Amino acid sequence: MSKLPAILSRLDADLDASLARLSSWLEIPSISTDSAYAADSRRAAEWLAKDLESLGFTAGLRETPGHPIVLAHRPKPGAPHVLFYGHYDVQPVDPLELWDTKPFEPVIKEIEPGRKVIVARGACDDKGQVMTFVEALRATIAETGDLPIGVTVMVEGEEESGSVNLPAFVRENAEELKADFALVCDTGMWDRHTPAITASLRGMVYQEVTITCADRDLHSGLFGGAAANPVHVLAKIVAALHDETGRITLPGFYDGIEEPTNQQKADWADLNLTEDEFLGQIGLKHSVGETGRMLIEQIQSRPTCDVNGIWGGYTGEGTKTVIAGKASAKVSFRLVGKQDPETIAAAFQAFVRERLPADVSAKFVAHGASPAVAVPVESPALRKAQAALTEEWGRKAVTIGSGGSIPVVGDFKRLLGIDTLLVGFGLDDDRVHSPNEKYDLSSFHKGQRSWARILQALATEGA
Amino acid sequence: MSKLPAILSRLDADLDASLARLSSWLEIPSISTDSAYAADSRRAAEWLAKDLESLGFTAGLRETPGHPIVLAHRPKPGAPHVLFYGHYDVQPVDPLELWDTKPFEPVIKEIEPGRKVIVARGACDDKGQVMTFVEALRATIAETGDLPIGVTVMVEGEEESGSVNLPAFVRENAEELKADFALVCDTGMWDRHTPAITASLRGMVYQEVTITCADRDLHSGLFGGAAANPVHVLAKIVAALHDETGRITLPGFYDGIEEPTNQQKADWADLNLTEDEFLGQIGLKHSVGETGRMLIEQIQSRPTCDVNGIWGGYTGEGTKTVIAGKASAKVSFRLVGKQDPETIAAAFQAFVRERLPADVSAKFVAHGASPAVAVPVESPALRKAQAALTEEWGRKAVTIGSGGSIPVVGDFKRLLGIDTLLVGFGLDDDRVHSPNEKYDLSSFHKGQRSWARILQALATEGA
Fold this sequence. Notes:
Largest sheet of chain A: 9 strands, mixed
CATH superfamily of the largest domain in chain A: Zn peptidases
Oligomer: homodimer
Shape of chain A: globular
CATH topology of the largest domain in chain A: Aminopeptidase
Strand content of chain A: 15-25%
């Protein structure tokens, strides 16, 4: 541990340079879901591979049917070996007009006295988070000439589009990816001062449905009153997905979910998360979640269903008296416990088909299906990381559930047989997936310091 | 009447040249609802004014707060005077990918043996229809050196965006627009072989509603399960607009509508319009209209409600796990009888507001409101036109109701005190407002001949 103070001092001194590095990565618009940005995705991957190579990793790009994966190794025989996972792709930026600054021109802003943030698409999710780990590696190597443990870094470019090619890659390269456990930096803190380790993640089923009525768009003056309108059909389906108590109405949807223990309920009650506190930051006051559940339960440990997008007919300026031929929606379900993704995808499709009037058809595109995962909360690695985080932040690191989904955690367990330690420094107000995404400089800086501490801690013997 | 055969022969000989003229007008993308095409709208207006000037009209553009109005006069003291109305603006062209050819590059196609059509945005609605009248004027003047009656031509550029500036223009220029009655060429035939005069038109209320929940787009993994989703709120509202029998549920919506007489029902039954015949052409088999009403009643004489567009959240390629801050819909109602547009607009807004959960707000944009109108079916002018149409087409011209709305007809009655004769040559399969809009060459050619006959007929004495 004696080397740690020097490493931490180096990180403090190097903060501006590390921000410049992050900025140059953020300038590359690596939007994975839009094929127009494929070349940019590759550039973002190359940027990271080159940086890791400069740290003494054997690093390069590995091809997939989609965007390449950055894979880098720095083994240390005899020491523990970790597999770090992150992603270099970012969400689309629309609606662009709601950004105060350009999404791929990072800026540093002081949003309240003493609180600086970096604003850009990917500032938090996940480039900023990935770089907390990379900067910890850099400072450790610079200060000590080595790392205390062996490290493999795998950073993919398709997390925001469902990680469709990652499971096959992990399966085919299981031997090369072998590690004692995985580290992931793509999660959040409890609040701005309290670090957290995420111990459970919701799964996800994402389906796109297109309803077709007539074989073309129609003039509502000629055909209105007789021709089926796909927007009406789709609206009735969406409206039927939740009942008046906020429960999701797909038959069998809640199968495989356990009720929380009394201890769990007591822990939640202690955290005392209020609607004002959680929803107030986004201009809301009332949860629309399941009646009779605590807010924290609704957002962390209960399954959800949200329409993420809907479109049909004329959506431009002014008017058009059209009855659309088609209307579409993107619908996602967050899963918990032992809910089965395939069963729920099938239940959704059946639910839609049962509600189609005569003449009307539905087509589906599956955008991914992954189960919920839970990580053991009593592992030695988790306890070491928890102690290191507590040391850095001066507050006890809590273990939390996350509403988000990181399917790779399930893949690591299933395909590599290893558990994952999820440590991240995102905040609820980071506007992840929204305009004006940001990352607090305190998250970025103390995140680097946290990883430096965790790397040293993981090298120590015993539990 | 002795001059008519020569005029008709001239129209026959001049068909190719008249098609070339129409094509050059169709090439101008005069999309009134999109401000990006404002200069094109003006060009389309100038094109027509110049053409009318070449026919000896005093013609020019008259400015409005929006797009200009083409106004042209050719008086004939002592003879009847008619006010012809049409519009030079066209609908937007999206979805562009569904067009087989470019919307503003007109092409002539043979869609079945012996049946040729011209394909372009505006081919029928309303440039093609307007030019049937203009070509009849041209041939009559060329052959006889004069017109048999006085003619004012008023062609506006905002019909597809609700004719918002037309009523004020008509009111302010009532003296200049004085006429015995109005002619409008913006309606359809009964079928490809049977001409029709439209005797009633539905009115229209067009509202755009935007539902706002959170003050930004949210990550569904962080906020899903608690934050209100505006797409869900909007879907529930749209789903509630119709009941299971196809009736519209706005309170008081059906006030002011009379039931059809037994004679009207018998006339409808005689026309024997079947679902196969009417909906089969667009790939449907079953009407979703009000249970217990004949199909022809549903589409012509009953009020309707259609969502013409809906959008919210992520609508691009792939996935985005977002809960939108806002979602919007464009909703239009077709009105009949004495339904009051303002009352219905207010009822719609109240209907939406009553269905908003806590924290959720709605904003409205009104895109126009006009009542239904009926024209007298026993006027001398109508009988003369009916005889002329019957002569041209070899089938008795029928009087029909139209599901569409042409608010100017109500304006002419209210502001100028004149009735309107609605004669048009559109067909149900013209794909008006849809990709691949077309106009049959038989409509274009025999439409010109029909107007030539009507012009001569209107000059004759008596009933």
